[in-house]
Write a structure and sequence with these properties.
The protein has 493 residues and is α/β, with parallel strands linked by helices. 34% of the residues lie in helices and 22% in strands. The longest helix has 15 residues. The chain is globular.
Length: 493
């Protein structure tokens, strides 16, 4: 089945942490709910917000071995205490990235329930994204016992001297999963990305996954790239294959499933390389960091990158790995951060709970959200914002960074950033990424507006102006208070 996302090359995605989301619905409904019995109104609410796809994070079979390891880990238990003070052992449901098998967990109703959820999404014009974890699996995954040749091997001496990095499974010593910069993860075992047999199994697995969804978000996708994998494991895994991992895997999957979407969790400035290796979109963590840390000029420099590169980025202000946006930015500043990140070209990601102002970053091991108050003002903001970006121009239009300038001796304009969208409609977005009032002139490339009067309407602020089209081309005066924005729909009279 072709991806539902193929019609929207710059989509908006909604991430759901599946286990606690269903637990919350079950409590609200007073009965056990799985993916096949979610009441229609929950899917309707997501569809009504204008999203193009839902990422159901963590639907695959969880690992009892991983749960046991998590419960014995003091650092993880401390994180559970911080996020969910009344947690009980049954709330620890296992990491969705400690996969015991690429089979829909029975807790979610199995494969048929997932198919029902996909049908519900498709009926509302939305696609479905699921997870794939290329680097590792749970120690009780069937491969660990039946196919040890797919893993990075260790020795008995290494197991004895470094038990935090190696594990014995059915008489075979296997390395725990890791990246090049941190100690091993104790709850997973490391797949050997250089093993031809693994790549064949992965293609088979991804083809099976692709029968059930429209795309995959690939966890830590850069870890299995030849250069990174060789740097992580050295001589232990031998020479790199001639072909890299993703250029071997992705074309095979797309041949069987045209239009299937690949999203990469990516860091270390490897986004462009992963795009070249076949990914549709890669995490734009650099934009997130620059919006969070500033200054505005660093954000602007990032947005000067090649258009093709930017078109293949996934923008966000929170996800399950990052702090909640309200906690990281503050409630007031989180709004301009959302406007800045979620009106760029590429794909855009919103996390369940973000729209309501959730502040607690839930460890992925937990299956229950804490009780938190909602923020009515933030809900109102996001509803107006998502209504605005439901305009097809933000999915199919052309994005362009705008020039801005100030006056002699006045550099306040440097904290203003502006960009525009042109499609069936036109939009001009200006943000002030500073803690003081800023002013300057903003110029678009819309020369055809000369000689016209234009309505500038901001549905997120409920303000409107009438301005000359000449000003929009020659220099539109803008003054914004700290951490404020304008999101103008531009309509010539």
């Amino acid at each position: 089945m072709p991806s539902k996302l193929s019609q929207n090359p710059q989509p908006y995605l909604y991430e759901i942490n599946s286990w606690p989301w269903l637990e919350a619905i079950s409590r609200a409904e007073g009965r056990a709910i799985d993916l096949g019995t979610v009441p229609d109104r929950y899917w309707d609410e997501i569809a009504d917000l204008g999203f193009d796809a839902v990422w159901l994070m963590g639907v695959w079979r969880r690992s009892p071995a991983g749960i046991g390891i998590a419960l014995s880990n003091d650092d993880l238990r401390a994180s559970f205490d911080a996020a969910l003070p009344d947690w009980q052992p049954y709330d620890v449901v296992g990491s969705p990235y400690c996969v015991r098998g690429y089979v829909v967990d029975d807790h979610f109703g199995g494969r048929n329930a997932l198919a029902s959820a996909r049908e519900a999404l498709a009926a509302r014009g939305m696609g479905l994204i699921l997870d794939f974890v290329p680097n590792h699996v749970a120690p009780d995954h069937p491969w660990a016992s039946s196919k040890p040749e797919l893993f990075v091997a260790g020795t008995a001496d290494e197991l004895r001297t470094d038990p935090k990095s190696f594990v014995e499974i059915d008489g075979h010593v296997l390395a725990n999963g890791r990246d090049p910069y941190f100690p091993a993860w104790p709850d997973v075992v490391q797949l050997n990305a250089f093993a031809p047999a693994l790549r064949a199994v992965v293609i088979e697995t991804l083809n099976e996954i692709a029968e059930q969804c429209d795309g995959v978000r690939c966890d830590m996708a850069m870890l299995v790239m030849n250069d990174v994998f060789a740097r992580t494991w050295g001589d232990r895994v031998g020479s790199a294959p001639e072909s890299d991992y993703w250029p071997t895997v992705i074309p095979e999957v797309r041949e069987a499933h045209p239009g299937f979407l690949f999203l990469a969790e990516a860091y270390w400035d490897l986004e462009w390389a992963l795009q070249q290796q076949g990914f549709n979109y890669c995490y734009d963590k650099r934009l997130y960091d620059r919006i969070l840390q500033g200054p505005a000029e660093q954000v602007r420099l990032h947005l000067l990158a090649d258009d093709q590169y930017q078109h293949g980025l996934l923008r966000f202000v929170e996800n399950h790995d990052e702090p909640r946006a309200v906690a990281a930015f503050g409630s007031h500043r989180s709004r301009v951060a959302a406007v800045t990140a979620l009106t760029q070209t590429g794909a855009r990601l919103v996390h369940n709970g973000q729209l309501e102002g959730a502040t607690v970053h839930l460890p992925v091991f937990l299956g229950r959200y804490p009780s938190e108050p909602t923020d009515p003002d933030l809900i109102t903001f996001y509803r107006s914002f998502l209504t605005a970006v439901a305009d097809p121009t933000f999915r199919n239009g052309h994005w362009e960074l705008c020039d801005r300038s100030g006056w002699p001796g006045d550099d306040r304009y440097q904290d203003l950033l502006a960009w525009c969208w042109e499609g069936d409609t036109r939009w001009l977005i200006v943000v002030n990424l500073s803690d003081g009032t800023r002013a300057g002139e903003v110029r678009t490339q819309w020369a055809d507006l000369r000689g016209h009067q234009c309505h500038l309407t901001d549905p997120t602020q409920h303000i409107a102006f009438l301005r000359s089209g000449d000003d929009l081309v020659n220099g539109l005066f803008v003054e914004l208070d700290a951490w404020q924005w304008h999101m103008f729909r531009v309509e010539p009279r």
